[in-house]
Amino acid sequence: MYSCGTYIYIMNTVRRHPYVFVSIISLLAAVLVWWFTPKEYGAQTKIYDEYKETDLSVGLNSLNVTVRDLIGSENKGINDVEVYCRILKSYDFARKLAKVTVPAISVEYGKYLGEKDTLDAIKDNVSYKLSTLEQSLIIQFKDRDQLVAAQMLDSVTTILQNVITEKRQKANNALLVNAAAKRERAKKNYEVAIAKYAAFVDSNANPTSASVAKVQEALLEEANNLFSIYSKANEEYVRYDLLQKRSYNSFAVVKCNSVPLHYTSYLIGYVLFALFVSICSVKGYRLYKERRGRKHFVDFGGASSPWCITLVVWSCLMFAMIFRDPTLLNPPTEMFYTSIVLWLVFFTIASFVTYTLLPCSGNDINEVRKSAASPIELKNINRAMFYFFLFLSIVITPLYLKKIMEVVMMFGTDDLFKNMRDLAVYGNDRSFLNYAVVINETLMIVALWAYPNIKRWQLFVACAGCLLNSIAIMEKGGILLVVFSIIFILYQRSYIKVRTIVIIGVSIIFLSYGFNMLRLSEDELNSSDDYSLFSFIACYLLSPPVAYCTLTREIVPQFGAHTFPLVYLFMNKFGMGSYVFFDRLQEFVFVPVSTNVYTILQPFYMDFGQFGVAVFAVIYGILTGWAYRMMRNGSAFGKCFYMYLAYALALQFFQEYIFTGNLHIIQLIVFLFLCTQDRFRLSFKKNSADI
């Protein structure tokens, strides 16, 4: 009886608190899985290339001189850090590491692993983080044994140094041979010319005519020119001879290796994943049970659904990739195709299932479509908050613009637009005025949905403020947000059709190209070989997927460093630790056009690999599916929030905007909620209605 009663009590508790019960079980399972998963330690070292300094020491006069400049653009310079990366991930390098005898275990590392795919395992243990700005490389070696990891990293550094030095010497020897041949040809040409001149002078010892004197002068000039060529060839030979004879390291170690003390896997990752799966499972099951008891239908959501936007964006991009210019853009690799398949499959399923399981406002599809196309109901807008933000916009927007112009004008009117953009990227000293951007975006979104239930001048102020902010900092994103929002709402209200959206989209490409030209300085325009429209399209529309293919799993200082900057920002602010933050502007890569955007997938892959791409596809799908259902149910906040999410989805080929949006996205969500909720009111008139 006692056991039966206990069982009944436990089952009743589980039914009353399913989330708590399942979460506890999932947490215990996550801890156990993490505990019994083989742990790995990562030893790290940081190296700088030294070849440029060596070049200077033997007479080269520019810090920008590289081996590539000396031997031709088709060859990769040995001092190019990217060359190091290719060597580290090569099978030849793995074979050398497999034969290394590890002092801690007194056995070759290949035999120590004892795996069939030993070389692949060694390659997986070697990772790196490349900085093109610093021309530095952080190398990491992972192993289950701390001491083995540290000792193998020393071997990696030593072998890499030898390989690079050997390649450098071979390149220098080839350069020396070529320089010697070039010097010899120049010497012979000069000797022939000077002999020809001497013979002519001997045969015309007393020149009596102007023609003879002219020929003699021409021969002398030719001899002098050939002597000058010979002198330069001799200087080049001497320089390469000195480079060949000098003994120096190819790179310097600036961060010494040490025995690692912490695991490379994080318990918090297992815990968060377990909680996410458990909560989604319980909620999904309960929604499914509720759905079984009510009348339902298949609703595919229309063209504005998150799955439709995502599929259209990537389909158009893949189609455009077929017509890419190979001279401007490299082809995507298997890595990208694997990631995009994972993203599309998991995102589409998660968003559609979430949208389908959540309850809708009507019992038939016609009612749902009607609610989705209807304007925001007046009762769902808080008049006081809307007018408060409108007043703030009118006050701080001019101050914001004034502050920007004051700082920019300090550098003169030359390259005005370029300076405005640089200030937006690197300038942070505008305190409260920074809220002008998010306030104006909030007003613009709410006003567009509420019109014509607000006055026309209010709509104009909201949109104008957002546009002025974007123009002031030369940011295309703000202008695109305004344009996208207008198009989105017009489509929702059936004022425009899909073909109109296509025409507008093509027009935006041309306008963005012109806007980008304004952002460039005169020097950049003059120094560039190609700023054509096709180059612009290749750079901004097609290059992010190709740039994504250049990514490698970074050695991050903390869990999810790229994905959760907001979390670490707050923890850092409240004294809960000291964490590393990455620059807003990411490093440029050449594919071969230069770009520093890597699609929406970049932070997830950098932190968690392909597994992270799949997991965050599900998270994105749940978030957008929920917001889309709210919008279709007529929620004011849902309509405003989903419109911003749709904007982020439309630009997912470019970069990620939600998780990596710093405080901007949180501020936007809070301000949208304040303007669209009706749970509290601050009215100046008795029984005043909302907007």
Question: What is the fold's blueprint, element by element?
Answer:
Elements lengths: L1 H15 L1 H19 L4 E9 L1 H7 L9 H5 L9 H8 L2 H8 L2 E2 L4 E2 H5 L4 H8 E6 L4 E8 L2 H58 L6 H36 L5 E5 L11 H26 L13 H17 L11 H24 L7 H9 L9 H27 L6 H11 L8 H16 L5 H17 L3 H17 L5 H22 L2 H6 L5 H16 L16 H9 L15 E2 L3 E2 L6 H31 L3 H15 L11 H15 L15
Structure characterization notes:
The chain has helices at residues 2-16, 18-36, 51-57, 67-71, 81-88, 91-98, 109-113, 118-125, 146-203, 210-245, 267-292, 306-322, 334-357, 365-373, 383-409, 416-426, 435-450, 456-472, 476-492, 498-519, 522-527, 533-548, 565-573, 602-632, 636-650, 662-676; strands spanning 41-49, 101-102, 107-108, 126-131, 136-143, 251-255, 589-590, 594-595. With 691 residues, the chain is mainly alpha-helical. The chain has three domains: 1-37 and 265-293, no CATH class; 41-255, Bacterial polysaccharide co-polymerase-like (2-Layer Sandwich), CATH 3.30.1890; 294-676, no CATH class. Helix 15 runs parallel beside helix 18 (456-472), helix 17 packs antiparallel against helix 18 (456-472) and helix 25 packs antiparallel against helix 26. The longest helix has 58 residues, at 146-203.
